[in-house]
Amino acid sequence: MAEIKTKRCCRCNQILPVDCFNKRSRAKDGLQAMCKACKTKWSQEYYATHPERLEEVKKYSSEWYKKDRVERKEILRELRIIRTGSSFVL
Ligand SMILES: [Zn+2]
Question: pLDDT tens digits, residue range 29-50?
């Protein structure tokens, strides 16, 4: 029988299977100290008390997607040029 690995959550102090924790590559055991449920609660509380951080995250992600779309357009254009041997107007 396979042994189920467990870990104690630093917030609710419950001993839970490691599946209940998000991964964190920088951590010694490769897992976050907080369980997923606590992390969700923590994020909600954190952003409720730090609305400016939420705005930053929103801004960052919208900029990222904008950039990504432009880059994708560029790649598509290059592919089109290679395939057809001519340029086209977007
Ligand atoms: Zn917890």
Answer: 999 999 999 999 998 898 889 8
Question: What's the CA-to-centroid distance between 49 and ligand 1, angstroms?
Answer: 20
Helices (H) and strands (E) in the chain, counts: 2, 4
Residue 14 CA, ligand 1 centroid: distance in Å: 6
Q: Give the chain's residues under pLDDT 70.
A: 1, 64-65, 68, 72, 75, 79, 81-90
- ∠ CA 13-42-4, rounded to 5°: 40
Share of the chain above pLDDT 90, in %: 37
Q: Which residues sit with Cβ closer than 5 angstroms to ligand 1, an ion?
A: 9, 11-12, 35, 38
CA of 36 from ligand 1 middle (Å) equals 7
Pairing relationship of beta strands 21-23 and 6-8 according to DSSP bridges: unpaired
